[in-house]
Amino acid sequence: MTSSRQDASRRGATLITGCGSGIGAATAVTLAAAGHRVVASVHSFHRMSELAERSAEAGVELDVRELDVTDAAATAACVADVAAAYGSLRAVVSNAGVNRFDTFERETPEDYRRLFEVNVFGPVALIRQAMPFLRASGGRVVAVGSIGGVVGLPFQHAYSGSKFALEGVLESLAPVARRLGVAVSVVEPGPTATGLGGIGDRERLDAESGPYREALRQYTANAARVLPGLPSRQPADAVAAVIRDVLAARDPDFRYATSPAGAAFLARKLPDVSGRATADLIESWLEAPAEPRGTQFSRNANPPNRPGSGPIT
Length: 313
Ligand SMILES: NC(=O)c1ccc[n+]([C@@H]2O[C@H](COP(=O)([O-])OP(=O)(O)OC[C@H]3O[C@@H](n4cnc5c(N)ncnc54)[C@H](OP(=O)(O)O)[C@@H]3O)[C@@H](O)[C@H]2O)c1
Known about the structure:
Keywords: NADP, Oxidoreductase. This protein is an alpha/beta fold.
């Protein structure tokens, strides 16, 4: 990294959610090591030992703050405080998330609400609060989605539903935000070696799964080995490195797999894995039609305030 790029990244802060453990902890440390001024928000100061260990090991400095992403007022205050303390907000990484693994008939509407609060409404509130600051800085949004946000995975109805919802919101926002100078991307990890909860009380689930039991047993047994087509488990650091690279990209795509196998899995469903071609088409809807009228819209290659002029390293 050149020193001028390093200097650029030192203006303003990068705010990450859910940094107490897993991908969030790895991302906080990776971005700090890459020169970001990182505000690492954790759900609770009582559950951040992984972050403390990782940051001590790497010898990086983090500004750790407590934030429950389901608390909209606290989220608004946190975003404003960070922007004021650091002069600007350069990027937001929405990482906090919860999982649930269950049979469809055991899941209650409350289970769906709980997951959507953390995985959808929290991130949407965060990004909405951050947008004015990101417009001012020409900043970035990166949300941690999931391959389960593109392909519905068995026994993860609420989780996949929430990740689909988040991705839909952000896919809708991305082309418009791009014209306002803010790049919006979703990083889609496959299985990652973290403590992301889900199965809970295995024995009880097995006992109560009724007609779903056989499929559930087979699925979990197969998943413990290898599921054909599904990428194998990767370390949280590998996902963090992808997030770092997305933030450093001059003109980031909308969607990123976190491994070649993850990209191949997404390509089973998506002809446009990166979302680039779709975003370009949709962006053309936001422009004046090319002359003469009635011919195909052409994409303005250099819209005003287009993100990418100041990569975040
Ligand atoms: N692990 C995977 O296989 C995988 C695959 C695809 C996508 N992802 C996504 O990656 C992201 C990070 O998950 P992870 O795998 O790193 O698991 P993780 O270690 O459990 O990390 C999730 C973090 O989110 C925090 N969190 C939960 N509820 C929160 C809330 N209301 N407010 C703020 N923070 C909250 C958790 O804090 P507490 O523990 O203190 O509640 C935890 O630190 C999630 O969005 C997840 O969906 C994970």
